[in-house]
């Protein structure tokens, strides 16, 4: 009998649901825009509506459970959304318990970046490795760590907020309220902000010359057309990411770093600069650690959430991994 798990990826922009088999294959999926300002009851209704539709259309033989990926901070030990800034009302909200009331299957809750790390470890670029660091580089920077074949969760299940390690003393203000965080310099948002400022100061760039928005996509497009400033900005971004990744390599000693998130769509352009920084500045024993592209792309968290349900039914249990 084929077993499937339900994966839920709850974000501030979209709610996504999928039926996933034990090989990590997505059998069916559905998504809709998150009603982010309507409060928890409405968002939970959206989750249940998507999953009910998938189950009714697919009629699977056996559902092992529901895995939910959500942005943090989350206290996954207590099952509480401590504060999800992109979702109104999700402050000290008992997310796991409220979902469990609505589902006849066991529910597991995980931070979105850790879920993505699990997805890549079980079914993606990290399959076969016992040690990896997953870093998502998008609006912000998040992460997840697998060490000695175990998911690193830490106190309250909140480990690996890698975007909030300090990289510049008293540096740029980060959305978390601290200054000098990796996220404040290396995220897609920070990259776009630098591009906007530098384009205003430069008369010889095509960035923004068409009156369109200056964002990461427009910078990479300009670089492909040979724009000097655009290529300089990308080289600087690769160096910033390389610096952060090198620190993570020294801390966790992974076999690989897996890069996901929006900026990973330009991995081929960024990877040589990232790898060059690691080769130059990592300690000799760590220079050979490779940076790899997430194999599951935007589905890393969705598949990883489903993997929670499969892993929780095995020995050792997921909370021991």
UniProtKB/TrEMBL annotation:
The protein's name in its UniProt record: ROK family protein
Family under the similarity heading: Belongs to the ROK (NagC/XylR) family.
Entry-linked PANTHER family: BIFUNCTIONAL UDP-N-ACETYLGLUCOSAMINE 2-EPIMERASE_N-ACETYLMANNOSAMINE KINASE (PTHR18964:SF149), ROK (REPRESSOR, ORF, KINASE) FAMILY (PTHR18964)
Gene3D superfamilies (alphabetical): 3.30.420.40
Pfam short name (any one): ROK
């Amino acid at each position: 009998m084929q077993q499937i798990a339900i994966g839920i990826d709850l974000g501030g922009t979209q709610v996504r649901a999928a039926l996933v088999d034990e090989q990590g294959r997505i059998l069916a999926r559905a998504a809709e825009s998150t009603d982010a300002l309507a409060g928890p009851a409405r968002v939970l209704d959206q989750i249940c509506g998507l999953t009910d539709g998938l189950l009714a259309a697919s009629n699977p033989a056996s559902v092992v459970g529901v895995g939910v990926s959500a942005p943090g901070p989350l206290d996954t030990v207590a099952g509480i959304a401590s504060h999800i800034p992109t979702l109104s009302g999700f402050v000290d909200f008992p997310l796991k318990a409220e979902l469990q009331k609505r589902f006849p299957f066991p529910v597991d809750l995980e931070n979105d970046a850790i879920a993505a790390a699990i997805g890549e470890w079980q079914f993606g670029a990290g399959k076969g490795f016992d040690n990896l660091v997953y870093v998502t580089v998008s609006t912000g920077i998040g992460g997840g760590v697998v060490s000695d074949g175990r998911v690193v969760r830490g106190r309250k299940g909140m480990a690996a907020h890698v975007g909030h390690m300090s990289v510049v003393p008293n540096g740029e203000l980060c959305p978390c309220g601290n200054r000098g965080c990796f996220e404040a310099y290396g995220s897609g948002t920070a990259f776009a902000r630098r591009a906007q400022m530098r384009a205003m100061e430069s008369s010889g760039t095509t960035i923004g010359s068409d009156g369109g928005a200056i964002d990461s996509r427009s910078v990479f497009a300009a670089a492909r057309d040979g724009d000097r400033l655009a290529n300089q900005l990308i080289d600087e971004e690769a160096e910033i990411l390389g610096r952060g990744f090198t620190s993570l390599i020294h801390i966790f000693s992974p076999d690989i770093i897996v890069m996901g998130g929006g900026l990973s769509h330009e991995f081929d352009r960024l990877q040589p600069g990232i790898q060059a920084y690691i080769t130059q500045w990592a300690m000799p024993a760590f220079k050979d650690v490779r940076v790899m592209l997430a194999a599951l792309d935007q589905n890393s968290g969705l598949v990883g959430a489903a993997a929670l349900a499969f892993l929780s039914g095995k020995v050792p249990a997921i909370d021991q991994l």
